[in-house]
Amino acid sequence: MSSLAFIQNINGPEILLIFLIVLLLFGAKRLPELFKSFGKSIREFKKATSEIEEDVRNAMEEEPRKPEPTAPAAAPKQVESANSDETKADKA
Question: What is the mean predicted confidence (pLDDT) over 27-36?
Protein backbone atom coordinates (compact mmCIF):
# COMPACT_ATOMS: atom_id res chain seq x y z
CA MET A 1 0.00 0.00 0.00
CA SER A 2 1.37 3.38 -0.99
CA SER A 3 1.99 5.90 1.78
CA LEU A 4 0.99 8.75 -0.57
CA ALA A 5 -2.40 7.27 -1.47
CA PHE A 6 -4.22 9.97 0.53
CA ILE A 7 -3.06 12.65 -1.94
CA GLN A 8 -5.43 11.28 -4.59
CA ASN A 9 -8.42 12.16 -2.39
CA ILE A 10 -7.52 15.86 -1.92
CA ASN A 11 -10.00 18.09 -3.75
CA GLY A 12 -10.41 21.87 -4.08
CA PRO A 13 -11.90 22.57 -0.63
CA GLU A 14 -9.14 20.63 1.13
CA ILE A 15 -6.41 22.49 -0.79
CA LEU A 16 -8.08 25.81 0.07
CA LEU A 17 -8.22 24.84 3.74
CA ILE A 18 -4.53 23.88 3.74
CA PHE A 19 -3.64 27.19 2.05
CA LEU A 20 -5.61 29.17 4.65
CA ILE A 21 -3.91 27.36 7.52
CA VAL A 22 -0.48 28.08 6.01
CA LEU A 23 -1.52 31.71 5.53
CA LEU A 24 -2.53 31.98 9.18
CA LEU A 25 0.66 30.33 10.43
CA PHE A 26 3.18 32.25 8.35
CA GLY A 27 1.40 35.47 7.39
CA ALA A 28 0.97 37.12 4.00
CA LYS A 29 4.41 38.78 4.04
CA ARG A 30 6.34 35.55 4.51
CA LEU A 31 4.40 33.37 2.04
CA PRO A 32 6.30 34.41 -1.12
CA GLU A 33 9.59 33.93 0.69
CA LEU A 34 8.45 30.54 1.99
CA PHE A 35 7.34 29.27 -1.42
CA LYS A 36 10.50 30.61 -3.07
CA SER A 37 12.70 28.66 -0.66
CA PHE A 38 10.46 25.61 -1.11
CA GLY A 39 10.91 25.86 -4.90
CA LYS A 40 14.69 26.15 -4.54
CA SER A 41 14.84 23.07 -2.35
CA ILE A 42 12.71 21.08 -4.82
CA ARG A 43 15.04 22.15 -7.66
CA GLU A 44 18.13 21.14 -5.69
CA PHE A 45 16.59 17.78 -4.87
CA LYS A 46 15.75 17.11 -8.52
CA LYS A 47 19.26 18.15 -9.58
CA ALA A 48 20.87 15.85 -7.04
CA THR A 49 18.70 12.88 -8.01
CA SER A 50 19.38 13.40 -11.72
CA GLU A 51 23.15 13.55 -11.04
CA ILE A 52 22.97 10.30 -9.07
CA GLU A 53 20.93 8.64 -11.83
CA GLU A 54 23.49 9.79 -14.41
CA ASP A 55 26.37 8.41 -12.33
CA VAL A 56 24.61 5.06 -12.01
CA ARG A 57 23.94 4.91 -15.76
CA ASN A 58 27.57 5.75 -16.54
CA ALA A 59 28.80 3.11 -14.12
CA MET A 60 26.54 0.49 -15.70
CA GLU A 61 27.73 1.36 -19.22
CA GLU A 62 31.44 1.15 -18.37
CA GLU A 63 33.22 -2.10 -19.09
CA PRO A 64 34.54 -3.75 -15.97
CA ARG A 65 38.26 -3.32 -15.54
CA LYS A 66 40.45 -6.38 -15.63
CA PRO A 67 42.59 -6.75 -12.52
CA GLU A 68 46.25 -6.06 -13.20
CA PRO A 69 48.61 -8.96 -12.50
CA THR A 70 50.62 -8.36 -9.41
CA ALA A 71 54.20 -9.40 -8.80
CA PRO A 72 54.63 -12.36 -6.47
CA ALA A 73 55.20 -11.27 -2.94
CA ALA A 74 58.80 -11.55 -1.83
CA ALA A 75 59.58 -13.25 1.43
CA PRO A 76 59.99 -10.68 4.19
CA LYS A 77 63.56 -10.05 5.18
CA GLN A 78 64.49 -10.87 8.71
CA VAL A 79 65.88 -7.87 10.45
CA GLU A 80 68.35 -8.50 13.20
CA SER A 81 67.80 -6.32 16.19
CA ALA A 82 70.51 -4.24 17.81
CA ASN A 83 70.45 -6.56 20.84
CA SER A 84 71.36 -9.58 18.72
CA ASP A 85 74.35 -7.69 17.29
CA GLU A 86 75.59 -7.00 20.79
CA THR A 87 75.18 -10.61 21.84
CA LYS A 88 77.12 -11.78 18.76
CA ALA A 89 79.92 -9.35 19.61
CA ASP A 90 79.96 -10.62 23.20
CA LYS A 91 80.23 -14.24 22.05
CA ALA A 92 83.11 -13.51 19.72
Answer: 86
